[in-house]
Every structure is written in structure tokens, then in C-alpha cells.
Amino acid sequence: MRFAPGVRQFAVPAFAAAAVLAVLAPPLSLLALAVGGFVAWFFRDPERRPSGPGVVSPADGRVSVVREEGDQVRVGVFMNVTDVHVNRAPFDGRVERVTHRPGKHLPAFSKESERNERVDVDVETDEGPAELSLIAGAFARRIHPYVEAGDDLDRAQRIGHIDFGSRADVLLPPTYDREDLLVEEGDSVRAGESVVAARER
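Below the sequence we write its predicted C-alpha cells.
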């Protein structure tokens, strides 16, 4: 099993504590071992492949936002604590900018999460400008982008992860409209695999 970067930062202390507590307080050792196991499971990073042509989901979870913004459509995916938290590129393109914006840490499924800490990745695609947003949640305290300005993106490529709860949005290129969407609010999706929008060629 592949794991996202940062797993050692959280899992190793828990496993080390479990080893020490095995001698001093065996019941607490089991608790520390369970915490370490949960952290390792949380940072899992399975392989993914697109299920078909079109824009794939940037995250595992449930679609929590579908709305029009000017001539573009935004699709947001809320990641529960049980979901894989490695985010993926919805489309091919070139990274124009990666911008970190400090903010609050409100529940990522709420409307107020628009004010949360986030990292916006501006991407130029063959179909026009698009944007990916990695948004911290109530318990997330660190966003880890893997890409920077000038990088070329391949669809379903790993682009980052967020520690412990969050949301990932994709602002589709302007050539897509609501009729091109294949998902609606409440649908379950998988990062890099589930197709959220497709256009007839």
C-alpha cells in the first residue's frame, strides 16, 4: 500500500508510544496502537484510473457543491474522515499559479467553509482556464500541494493531500455547462476515477 507524504509525522509517534506503553501500561498501548493504525489507514494512497473520458473528480467523498459562477461551473467534493484524502487532477493542463490563502477552519461541508484556509491551483487546459481548490476543514491544519507553477498535469495525477478532513473543488473550463455534468449534490465519487463532467465531441 502506498501512503501520502506526512504519514510518518503522525503514525510513528503513535507506534513509538505503543511500544513504550506496552511495558508501562498495556491497555494504553493498545489505544496508541489503534491510533497509529488509523493514521496509517487515513494516509492510504491507492492507485486510481479514470473510468471514462471527461473531467474526473478531484477527491473521494460526496458532491457537496454544484453551482454556476459566471460562465463556469463549480463542483465541490466533501471528504469525510473515512475517505482517501489524496487529491487528483481532473484534467490535463499546465499549472499557471499555486496560491495559498489563510483562513478559518470551519466544517468543510458548510457554506461558511468558503472562508477557510485553502490552496488554489490555476490551470490552463486545452478548453480554457480552470481552477482546483484544496480547502481545509474543521480538523485539517495543513494542505500539502504536490505541484507548482509551470508543471504539466496529466488527468488523474496526484496533486496534493490535506490532513484530516477537507473539501476539494474543481471550477470547470468555460466550455462546460450544467448539461455536461454527470453528478449532482449527494453523489459519491472517487478521486481520479469518477467522471463528473463530459462533453460530446
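The mean pLDDT is 87.
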